[in-house]
């Protein structure tokens, strides 16, 4: 078991077999698991007992996973791992755009999902279970790694788990360019995967910290390489 206090995970899937298998793996990993078979039930269950993480199927009857994710985000911060049976990139990106931290494409290995859950929880549950370090301040952006809070010019910025990790990593290495592959290994701890995951998170992060996201001055694109956190010249 990875945490001293078991994490509460909400599994939302209308396929009872998938939900049962996922629940079994997560419980063996030491988590407390709640289940819901549709969107309204998921939101109601979250209101009853707020989860530490949600495993959310994209294809739900009636209220789809994107709407559920938006509903959760409106209630408060919670890490979301999206499950999708679709292979099209546009569907994966849609999940990331509404704030999912990770996604797993069906059919998937339950063990892989359990490892993804463990990775996200390790980062989201605070000091002692996530990567910690000193407070970082660059160009008006401050990241408190121990408290996992970020602010811009003194105003707090609401970030998902992966957005926070990505920003903290870039602030630890200002002026250095990283490829999407390097960011995926360092932030997501994936050796391989869909690089659009990084692209979408960069875009979302720019939307939250840049004065003009269409003309970013902080997180800049290094053509042919990747991305770099710049320290703009004064003047």
Report what the structure shows.
The protein has 2 domains: 8-124, 3-Layer(aba) Sandwich (Rossmann fold); 136-229, Winged helix-like DNA-binding domain superfamily/Winged helix DNA-binding domain (Arc Repressor Mutant, subunit A, Orthogonal Bundle), CATH 1.10.10.10. Helices cover 40% and strands 21% of the residues. It contains 8 helices and 12 strands. It has helices at 16-28, 39-48, 65-75, 89-97, 110-124, 161-172, 180-188, 196-209; strands at 8-12, 32-36, 53-57, 80-84, 102-105, 136-138, 141-144, 149-152, 155-157, 177-179, 219-222, 226-229. The protein has a 5-stranded parallel beta sheet, with helices on both faces. Helix 2 runs parallel beside helix 3 (65-75) and helix 4 (89-97) runs parallel beside helix 8. The chain is globular. The model has no long low-confidence stretch (mean pLDDT 85).
Could you name the ranges where pLDDT drops below 50 across 5 or more consecutive residues? none
- C-alpha end-to-end distance: 53 Å
Radius of gyration: 18 Å
How many extended strands?
A: 12
Q: What is the CATH superfamily classification of the largest domain?
A: Response regulator
- Quick one: CATH class of the largest domain? Alpha Beta
| Total number of distinct structural domains | 2
Instruction: Summarize the main sheet.
Output: 5 strands, parallel
CATH topology of the largest domain: Rossmann fold
Class based on secondary structure composition and strand pairing: alpha/beta
CATH architecture of the largest domain: 3-Layer(aba) Sandwich
The largest sheet has its strands arranged as 2-1-3-4-5
What sort of overall outline do the alpha carbons produce when their principal axes are compared? Answer: globular
- Seen as an oligomer or otherwise, the chain set is single chain
Q: Spell out the helices and strands N to C.
A: EHEHEHEHEHEEEEHEHHEE
Instruction: Give the fraction of residues assigned to helices.
Output: 25-40%
User: What percent of residues are in strands?
Assistant: 15-25%
Count, helices: 8
The residue-averaged pLDDT reads 85
């Amino acid at each position: 078991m990875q945490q001293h206090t078991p994490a509460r995970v909400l599994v939302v899937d209308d396929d009872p077999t998938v939900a049962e298998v996922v629940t079994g793996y997560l419980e063996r990993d030491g988590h407390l698991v709640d289940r819901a078979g549709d969107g309204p039930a998921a939101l109601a269950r979250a209101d009853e007992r707020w989860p530490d993480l949600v495993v959310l199927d994209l294809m739900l009857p009636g209220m789809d996973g994107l709407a559920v994710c938006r509903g959760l985000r409106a209630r408060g911060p919670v890490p979301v791992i999206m499950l999708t049976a679709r292979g099209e990139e546009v569907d994966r990106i849609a999940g990331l755009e509404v704030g999912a931290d990770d996604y797993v494409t069906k059919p998937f290995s339950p063990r892989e999902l359990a490892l993804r859950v463990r990775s996200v929880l390790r980062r989201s549950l605070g000091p002692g279970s996530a990567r910690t370090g000193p407070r970082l301040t660059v160009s008006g952006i401050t990241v408190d790694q121990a408290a996992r809070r970020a602010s811009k010019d003194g105003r707090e910025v609401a970030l998902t788990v992966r957005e926070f990790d990505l920003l903290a990593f870039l602030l630890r290495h200002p002026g250095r360019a990283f490829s999407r592959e390097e960011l995926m290994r360092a932030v997501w701890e994936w050796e391989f995967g869909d690089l659009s995951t990084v692209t979408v998170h960069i875009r979302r992060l720019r939307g939250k910290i840049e004065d003009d996201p269409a003309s970013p001055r902080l997180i800049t694109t290094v053509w042919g390489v990747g991305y770099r956190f710049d320290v703009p010249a004064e003047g």
